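Fig. S4 source data, part A: sequence.
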Amino acid sequence: MLYFKWLLKRLIFFRRIMIELYNQIIYEKQSQFILHPTNAHRCPCEAVLFYSLLGRFFFGFKEILSLVSNNKLFKKSISLDGFDKSIDYKSLYKKGDNSYLYPKSPMIQTDNIKIEDTFYEKISRSYFLAHQEEESSRGLTQEWSSISKLYQNIFFSDKTIIRENIENFRGDPKIYNQIFTNNFIYISKEESYNKNYMNAIDLVLDYHKQATRMESLFLASLSESTAGNHLCVNYRGKRLSKELLYHAVVSHDIITHVPNLSKGEREIILDIGAGFGGVARILSFYRENTTQILLDLPETLLLTAYYLKDNFPNKKIALLEDIYPNLDNLDEIIRDYDFILIPPFVLNYLKDKSVDLVMNTTSLGFMSKDYLDYYLKETSRVLKDGGYFYSLNSTKSIDGGVGSYDWDYKKEYLTIAYGFDNRFAYPQWLGKKYKT
């Protein structure tokens, strides 16, 4: 009897060792949990388990078999917007389940937001006001003139915003492909289901791969916004896209390496070339006591205003119309808002050494030297001593753009972080402004 009990314990121990070995093979290190000493229970929540290289191989192979066998060999883990049955996320998160993170991440939208007509009217007025000011102060370049005509044809009818087009700017390929050149659009109804599903497998594998550099809970909390009616991949109770993962890389760099800069008061972030606000959205969840000043062309700010309002109906969003009467005293009202959307000319009104972090992704390197020098000079001017400058830009100069290796920095920066983990194969550089 004594030998039997001893042997039974050894078998239980051996079983636990085998499960630990299996976990080490298929999961990233941060997804490996201490097992129960007798039952060897693994972590039940799939949302925080991310696959290693071998695990990703097995997952991809399983998903291909499930696709070709039409769910007969294995059940598919992925569903596609526009092809599969729509997921009711509100019902899904009424109670917890092992297959998704519970409680629900605030990034997962479950309620339809009704944006009032008055806000759209403010967007329209701010756009034409910004256009008028920019045209009088700098003049329209040939490229900007062509962008302006394109946007006005798509989003306006006699200076009245076409709400349907704004609210479908990411879901309608005819709109998206005209206004964006980054090829981020993911699911296309013009392609077959099988081709879309194979691309979805690649996306999910990339999602798991990100766990080699990002925290698992950060990844598990991510979900793409419904604003713009973007068709997404649904996986583990969240919406994924290629663009979301790119925005996650930038956001994670900042969240990880930039400390909360202003103790007891709002920190100020200036994003030069903010786009429609994908990075700003993620940062807002992790840096709540922050004012984000989002600078871009008036055309892009049309989309930014709608996108942020749809995601944050209760946050204070300032458009140009809101701040225009107080530009000379802009520093006095900045901290009253969560987001301030500004066209380029407003940058001149920001006070010296008033910003904690300046960031730019994939646009400074494509500007003419005159514009680049202007923004680098302004970055140095508005950034506090000890403040941070984040850049994700090409290093090599091309026709029509100056790579970061040829930038004329007006101040010295101490490199705090350097990555190379984005889809553009550009360096992710973070520098701290050195006080001379």
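Fig. S4 source data, part B ends here. The longest strand covers residues 383-392.
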